[in-house]
Amino acid sequence: MKDFSKFEKEIGIKFKNTDYLRQAVVHRSYINEHPGFGLDHNERLEFLGDAVLEIIVTEHLFHNYPNKPEGELTNWRASLVNSEMLADVAQEINLDDYLYLSKGEAKDNNSKARRYILANAVEAMIGAIYLDQGKKKAEKFIKKYMISKLENILENQLYMDPKSKFQEKSQEIYGITPHYKILSESGPDHAKVFQVGLYLGEELVAKGEGSSKQEAQVEAAGKGIEKKKW
Q1: Domain at 5-155, CATH class
Q2: Distance between CA 139 and CA 167 in Å, rounded?
Q3: At what angle do helices 112-133 and 135-145 cross, to 10 degrees?
Q4: pLDDT at position 155, please?
Q5: Going by DSSP bridges, is the β-strand pair 203-210/193-200 parallel, antiparallel, or unpaired?
Q6: Which of 36, 151, 163, 184 has its CA 20 to 30 A from that of 59?
Q7: Residues with catalytic annotation?
Q8: Could you tell me if 165 and 82 are in contact, meaning their C-beta atoms sit under 8 angstroms apart?
Q9: Which pLDDT score, from 0 to 100, does residue 156 have?
Q10: Among 55, 77, 214, residue whose Cα is nearest residue 159
Q11: pTM
Q12: CB distance 90 to 124 below 8 Å
């Protein structure tokens, strides 16, 4: 069994029931290889943590920005709870060192899939903190590691997702609305990879790949922003 005492010191929370914390970092793949592990995978905790994270961030934005419209607050919230932000938080607190993964998943340590696993584990951990310590401790954790990043997000306009930013800039500069085309699909149905092209008129600006069309479009838009230096 892994020792979580160093991790508890890192996040400043001493769990009453460490099984909650341990379960938060158990990936489904590990249970498939170790059916007698004694704890379930973290997906139910992730489901709970996702809801806790959303309500705490929403309450903070609602009370602290009374003059901002709903649409703007929605964008800000999305920037604080998206999988990229959560994966960054996971790396900040060294959560990767504590994951229970299958041998195959453990080898794949620099992929998008691993960042997705880390993001889900952070949500599961929020669920674990909520169950073990209550809402106030969960709120303290979320404020320390997520909400604290809001100032930087607002200063650098990181709250606008790449697709929206690219569209706004292309309309402003060129008077053109960008469009996306699927260039290729590969892989089995359960693990598809889409390649998408981002176009301004007939010009292919950038290509993106992802496990969904949306993910591929976001990557293409991000590359397009870099290419255009927007």
Answers
A1: mainly alpha
A2: 35
A3: 140
A4: 85
A5: antiparallel
A6: 163
A7: 50, 123
A8: no
A9: 78
A10: 77
A11: 0.73
A12: no
pLDDT at 72: 81
Structure tokens at 83: 């999988």
> What tokens appear for 153 in the block?
């997000």
Contact 46, 128 (CB under 8 A): no
Read off the tokens for 120.
């889900």
Mean pLDDT by 10 residues, the chain (230 residues): 91 96 96 93 97 97 94 85 91 95 85 88 98 98 97 81 86 93 91 94 94 89 86
* Cα atoms in the Cβ-side hemisphere of radius 13 Å centred on 27: 22
**162-228, CATH topology level:** Double Stranded RNA Binding Domain (3.30.160)
Q: Where are the domains of the chain?
A: 5-155, 162-228
Identify any residues that bridge with 185 across adjacent strands, giving them in sequence order.
194
In the prediction, which pLDDT does 13 show? 97
Specify the amino acid at residue 200.
Answer: L
**In whole angstroms, what is the distance from residue 213 CA to residue 27 CA?**
25
The pair of three-digit structure tokens given for residue 134, joined into one six-digit string: 């209550």
Report the distance separating Cα 117 and Cα 188, nearest Å.
21
Torsion, CA 71, CA 76, CA 82, CA 87, rounded to 10:
180
